[in-house]
């Protein structure tokens, strides 16, 4: 009897194992057939609920570049609750973003965007807002206002950036040969440029309480938002970590209050034929018809005014971070620093300020800025895109409503294009004739591509040229004895260098 029972229990467990294996195989098969049917891109195995979040690490762009070697340029993952596709490499990125049908022009409706909308009287934001017909009007008006105040026709942008570069240099030299991390000196000048473009030129902006509050709230925002809010990818977390959204809401309200004070001042002394800044340009837009109905594609004044936050948010930390990297690369590469200084000395000398018209005579200076942008790759995954319809990319079907990460870092570090992508070598951007090699400059896309490409590219290139060339015209950047540098950064809102110390010495 005992033997029989032993035999039977073995028999039962065998059956259970067989049944279990059968069920798992069925599930796997179903999964494989499902993927096959959908012709979805390949991708690594993930967990339920969190998907692949636990595998991304602190630098998802680097992880994605590694996964590209296994799964190809287009692969799929799951970011918590969101189906996601990652696109790597120049060809796949261009195929996706250069198309004229706006398949990839959406932005995911992440939870923090809902909070943003809530705080802004239910209005859509420019950078993260929904993609619809009114978005086109929004982008067009924002672009027009930015262009009006950052074009070079009346030289005012050149003067403004030069003035701020001089302030920056004075502040850097105040350290009197003691090593320091130059982040706050850079932030103050870069912040002052975008602040004055948005809210008006002032004799004494730096001592203005509103400007000081602006710098502080910006700093707080950048520190809090860091590399993102987990609630965006797992919205149910807001019930478990309510403070994550509460704090975000508080910061947005503070930014809005501060913006409202500035806008009210503008409304008070607005003169339509004397526009002083971007706020005035927005106020001047005639958005309603005589019945009070919205005339231009459902754009309200509130919505247009909220663009000020987009411009400040996007135009501040990007330029500051690039200049922090620039100083780090110059101090790490004294020979390259000498070469680019020699070019600026030859073209500009030290008797006058750098002008935008010098650009075409300073190819090595441009190449050095490009090399800094390539290596620092400060917005490595662009902003998240979102598919507006089903589509096919690299032979795979990508469904509507998929989050899309465009891995710009994979272009900047592509070994086929650059051979030695980790090496700092500005001359790689120059052709045999000594001028910029167009093919090389188009081989990485620091400002993105297509409909959602950076709105501030022109302003960014202008600021970077004048800040950078003025800095090297007036100063030497030296690595202090015993200081070791790492080119490894930290991903926050942008990809930032780790704090480092540098000696800044006035050139004689
Ligand atoms: C070195 C400087 C900068 C870099 C590397 C940079 C890069 C980028 C990138 C990669 C995107 C996302 C593109 C995409 O989603 O495909 C973006 C978007 C954007 N940038 Fe910039 N940016 C810089 C400076 C600026 C400046 C100075 C401004 C304006 C003052 C600005 C305004 C914007 C706006 C408004 C968007 C959102 C565009 C949209 O969604 O339609 N950026 N930028």
Task: Give an account of the 3D structure.
It is a single chain. By secondary structure, this protein is an alpha+beta fold. It is built from 19 helices and 10 strands. The strands form 4 sheets. It has a 4-stranded mixed β-sheet with strand order 1-2-6-3. Strands 4-5 form a two-stranded antiparallel sheet. A hairpin with a 3-residue loop joins strand 8 (489-491) and strand 9 (495-497). The chain is globular, with a radius of gyration of 26 Å. The model is unreliable at 1-8 (pLDDT under 50). The structure holds protoporphyrin IX containing FE. Residues 126-127, 139, 194, 310-311, 314-315, 318-319, 322, 378-379, 382-383, 406, 446-448, 452-456, 459-460 line the site of protoporphyrin IX containing FE (HEM).
Mean pLDDT: 90
Shape: globular
**Total number of strands:** 10
CA radius of gyration: 26 Å
Low-confidence stretches: 1-8
Main β-sheet description? 4 strands, mixed
Number of helices: 19
* Strand residue content: 5-15%
The H-and-E topology, N to C, reads as: HHEEHHHHHHHHHHHHHEEEEHHHHEEEE
* Ligand species: protoporphyrin IX containing FE
Strand order, sheet with most strands: 1-2-6-3
Structural class: alpha+beta
Q: What's the N-to-C terminus distance?
A: 103 Å
Helix content: 40-55%
Main location: endoplasmic reticulum
GO molecular function, one term: oxidoreductase activity, acting on paired donors, with incorporation or reduction of molecular oxygen, reduced flavin or flavoprotein as one donor, and incorporation of one atom of oxygen
Protein name: unspecific monooxygenase
Keywords: Endoplasmic reticulum, Heme, Iron, Membrane, Metal-binding, Microsome, Monooxygenase, Oxidoreductase, Transmembrane, Transmembrane helix
């Amino acid at each position: 009897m005992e033997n029989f029972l032993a035999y039977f229990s073995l028999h039962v467990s065998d059956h259970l194992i067989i049944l279990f294996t059968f069920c798992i195989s069925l599930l796997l098969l179903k999964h494989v057939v499902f993927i096959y049917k959908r012709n979805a891109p390949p991708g690594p195995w993930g967990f339920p609920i969190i998907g692949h979040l636990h595998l991304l690490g602190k630098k998802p762009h680097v992880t994605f570049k590694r996964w590209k070697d296994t799964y190809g340029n287009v692969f799929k993952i799951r970011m918590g609750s969101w189906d996601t596709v990652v696109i790597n490499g120049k060809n796949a990125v261009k195929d996706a973003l250069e198309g004229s049908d706006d398949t990839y022009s959406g932005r995911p409706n992440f939870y923090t965007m809902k909070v943003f909308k809530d705080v802004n009287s239910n209005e859509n934001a420019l950078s993260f807002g929904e993609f619809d017909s009114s978005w086109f009007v929004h982008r067009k008006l924002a672009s027009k206002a930015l262009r009006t105040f950052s074009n070079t026709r009346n030289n005012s942008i050149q003067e403004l950036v030069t003035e701020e570069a001089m302030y920056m240099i004075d502040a850097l030299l105040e350290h009197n040969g003691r090593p320091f991390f130059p982040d706050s000196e850079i932030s103050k000048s870069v912040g002052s440029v975008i602040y004055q473009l948005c809210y008006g030129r002032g004799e004494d902006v730096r001592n203005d309480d509103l400007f000081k509050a602006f710098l502080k709230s910006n700093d707080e925002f950048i520190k809090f938002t860091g590399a993102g809010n987990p609630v965006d990818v797992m919205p149910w977390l807001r019930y478990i970590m309510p403070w994550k959204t509460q704090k975000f809401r508080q910061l947005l309200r503070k930014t809005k209050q501060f913006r409202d004070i500035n806008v009210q001042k503008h409304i008070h002394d607005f003169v339509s034929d004397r526009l002083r800044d971007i706020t005035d340009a927005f106020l001047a837009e005639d958005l309603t018809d005589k019945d009070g109905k919205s005339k231009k594609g459902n754009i309200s004044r509130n919505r247009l005014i909220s663009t000020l936050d987009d411009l400040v948010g996007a135009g501040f930390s990007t330029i500051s971070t690039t200049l922090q990297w620039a100083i780090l690369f110059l101090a790490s590469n004294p020979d390259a620093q000498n070469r680019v200084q020699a070019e600026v000395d030859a073209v500009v000398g030290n008797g006058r300020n750098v002008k935008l018209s010098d650009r075409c005579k300073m190819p090595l200076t441009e190449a050095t800025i490009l090399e800094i942008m390539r290596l620092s790759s400060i917005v490595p995954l662009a902003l998240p895109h979102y598919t507006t319809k089903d589509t096919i990319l690299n032979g795979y079907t990508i469904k509507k409503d998929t989050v899309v990460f465009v891995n710009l870092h994979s272009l900047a570090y592509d070994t086929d294009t650059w051979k030695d992508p980790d090496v700092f070598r500005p001359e790689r951007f120059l052709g045999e004739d000594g001028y910029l090699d167009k093919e090389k400059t188009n081989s990485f896309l620091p400002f993105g591509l297509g409909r959602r490409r950076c709105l501030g590219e022109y302003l960014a290139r202008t600021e970077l040229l004048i800040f950078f060339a003025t800095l090297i015209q007036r100063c030497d950047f030296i690595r202090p004895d015993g200081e070791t540098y790492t080119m490894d950064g930290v991903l926050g809102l942008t990809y930032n260098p780790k704090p480092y110390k540098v000696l800044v010495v006035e050139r004689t």
